[in-house]
Amino acid sequence: MAWTPTLAVIKTRGVAANLLAYITDGTRQTDAYTWAGDAALRTIKTVSNSVASRTTPFYPAIAFSDDNDAQDFTNDIINAAYSCIFEVSIQNADPDAAVVQARKYAAAIASMIVNCPKATLTANTGAVDASLNTIETGFEPIKTNEMQNDFLQVFQIRVTFTLYAEYLT
Fold this sequence. Notes:
By secondary structure, the chain is an alpha+beta fold. The chain has helices at 14-23, 26-36, 95-114, 118-122, and strands at 47-48, 61-72, 77-92, 129-139, 143-145, 150-166. The protein has a single domain (14-49, 59-166), classed as STM4215-like (2-Layer Sandwich). α2 packs across α3 (95-114). 28% of the residues are buried.
């Protein structure tokens, strides 16, 4: 028998996939990197769905790392709090250049997230509206990437949203 719910839930995890698709659009990336001050940054072409699923590293790389949600059903409108983390890895033979490039990638990605249209963000989630609450960026200490004979700068971007939907379908 087909499942036909009478009460709605928001499929919050679609937000991460929507953001990854938006961020990795080649033209949008190029424009965002130019805005961030470095038109020469390479675009992130391949996306890993999970940090754990990467078997062959590639750089620059962005991967979905973690997410959490909570939905409040005490009113006629569902309020869902959603947070997700993306991990970005930058490789360069010069450690200073790796750090500088990572900062520019972080600025460009944060700008793309802030400017992602609500319709794109909420597509296929069941939410009718969304608001961005916070963006947090954290940089790990730079590492020597011995396999590539260069340096690796990794940072994470955590974003939190509030999503809204009608409780009754």
